[in-house]
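Below is how a single chain appears once it has passed through the pipeline. First comes the sequence as given, then the structure the pipeline wrote out for it. We keep one example in the README because the format questions we get most often are answered faster by looking than by reading.
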Amino acid sequence: ILTKPLFMRTVLIFLLCVFTGQGVAFYLPGVAPHEYEAGENVTIKVNSIKSTKTAIPYDYYSLFFCRPTDTKMEPESLGEILWGDNIKPSRYGARMLQDISCAKICTTTPKDEKKHQVRKLKMRIDQEYRGHLILDNLPVAEVFIWEHGSSKDSLYYRRGYPLGVPANGSTPTLVNNHLHFTVKYHKPQNGVKANGYRIVGFNVFPYSVDSGYIKDQCKPDNEWEPWRHPPQPLYLKTNKPSGEQPTHSVTWSYSVKWEEEPNVAWSSRWDHYLHSADSADAKIHWFSITNSLLVVLFLSAMCATILLRSLHKDFNRYNNPDNEYESQEETGWKLVHGDVFREPSHPSALAMYVGTGSQCFGMAIITIFFACLGFLSPANRGSLMTAMLILFVLMGSVGGYVTARLARMFHEVSWFTVFCTGVCVPGTVFGIFFVLNIVMHIKQAANAVPFFTFFGLIGLWFCVSVPLVFLGGLFGYKQPTVEHPLRVNNIERPIPEQPWFLQSYIVIPLAGLVPFMAAFIEISFILSSLWLNKFYYVFGFFAIVFFILVVTCVETAVVGTYFQLCFEDHHWWWRSFLLSASCGLWLFLYSLYYFFTTLRLTTFWGVVLYFAYMALGSYVFGIMTGSIGFWGVFFFVRKIYSVLKVD
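Resulting structure:
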C-alpha cells in the first residue's frame, strides 16, 4: 500500500511525464546537434520509396535512378528493418552555404530491350509512390500553403516528394527528374557556444523537365528555371497523336538553395513535420480527448455510485440477522457464494491468455513511460518498434509468473501451461508474419526481413523470451496457493435461465464497445501514422487515453459481472475476460470502416497486408484488454465475498 507522500510523488511523476510528453518528446535525450563549417560537405541519403495506395515499400534503387558507386545500406535498428527503412548513400551532394543553380547527376538508360525498367518506373509513379531523402537526420518534405489555416499555421509539410505525375486520360505519365532543395540553417545565438551552422529545415520542390534541356542548359554557372521547360514524359511505345518515341533514357539533376532561418531552433526543427496538419483535425483531436475524458469520468462516477449503493444495500440485507426477508430465502449474488470460486472450464487456457495479456500490458506501460520522456521520438527512427519488441520479450517473466499463479489457484499445475504462454500467442503472430514475410521477399519489398535477422528474431524468442517465461513460472509456482474467501460446495448449483439482455452474444460485444468508444479517436490517429505515412508524436495524449481505456475496461467488466452474479450465474471467470476482450473485435470492425472510408489501397497484396496486420493487432489488443478486465473483476469479486457473512 502506498503511503500518502509516496503516492503524491508517484502521481506528480506520472503527470510530469504525461504533460511534458506532449511538447518535448521529439528527441532522444543526449543527442547533440551537428555543426557544419562553411563549405563543409553535407551528405544527402536516400530511404525507401513508399505509397499509401499499396502499403508496400521498395528500395530506392529498385528503379533506374542514378546509383552511387557504393550502395551499401547503413546499419539499422531492428525497428527500422521491420518498418522497411533502407537508408543508403546517394549521388545528391551539397556544401554548407554554397548554392547550386543546377547540377546534372547522370543519364540512365534501361538495359533491357523490352523496357521493363521504364514500365516499372511508370507503374510506381501511377501508384503515387514518393521518394524519401534524409539530410542531417531530417526527412525531406514538400511544403504547401494551407488555404484555410491561420497566418501562423498556414504551411503544410508532407514527407517525401512524388516520383512523378500519374497518367490522366490523354496526359502521359511525367517523371520528376529535377529536384530543387531548400536547406534552412541558422547560427546559434543568445550565448550558445557554436563553431558552425546548424541545419533546421530540408524542403524539396520536384520538377519534370525534358532530358534534352537538362543536358544542354543545366550548368552550375547558368541561371536555371526548370518551370519554364517542357516536362519529361514516359512512353512505353510510340505516341501516335504527338509522334513521341518510346522513352530510351532519362537525365536527372538537382539544385540547392540555402536560406537562413533564425527563428527556428535546432531543438524544435521537427515541429514543422509534427504540427503541420489541418487545423480542424487538430481541434477535433483536442476536443475528442477532452470529451472522452469528461465522459469517462462521469461514467466512472455513475458506475461507482450505482455499485456502491447497490452493494451497500446488499450488505445490509445479507449481513443483518434481523432482516426477515433475508432469513426466509437467500437471493441475488449471495446465493452463489458456494460456487463463485469454482474452477472455470479450460482453466489452463484462461491462465495462458491472462498471463499473455498481463505481459502485453506491462510492455505497454513501460513503452508509454519512455515515450513520454522523449526516448522514442520520431527523430529516432525505428525506436518505438524496437522498444516494444524488446520490452515484450523482457516482460515474459511477468507472463510466466501470472500464468503460474493462476494455474496453481485453479489446481492445474503444469509446465505445459507455462510453455503455452511463451509460445501460443507469440507463435500465432510469428507464423502469420513468417508467411507475409515470404510474400514480401517474392515482391522484393523493402520491409522484407532478411533471413539472418529473421533467425535472430527466432533466437530472441526461444533463447530469451521463453526462458524468461519459465523463470517467471518457477517463481509463480513457488508462491503459496491463492486462498479464496469462501469454500466451494461439493455439488455445483444449477444456473437459472438468464434474461435476454445477459446473453453472452449481447452483453459481451456491448461491454467492449464502451472502452473502445472512449479511445477510438486516438486509435484513428494511430492508424493514420501506420498506413498514411504520418508521424505520431502526442504520447502525452496517448498516456491519458490509455489510462481511460484501462479504467473503462475495469468498470464495464465489473458492472457486467455484478449483474451476472445478481442473476445467479456463477460462471464469471471467462466472461470477465471476454467482456473487455471484445474491444479487439471492435478494433477490427473499425479497421474495416477505416479501410472503406479513408484508405486508398488498390493492390491485392496491400489489402492482404492491411487486414492481416490489423487482425493480429486486434487479437493482441483484445488479449491485453481482456486481462485488464479480468483482474478488475477478480479483485472485485474477492472483495465483496470476503466481507459477506455466510453461515
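The longest helix spans residues 279-319.

See the next section for the split statistics.
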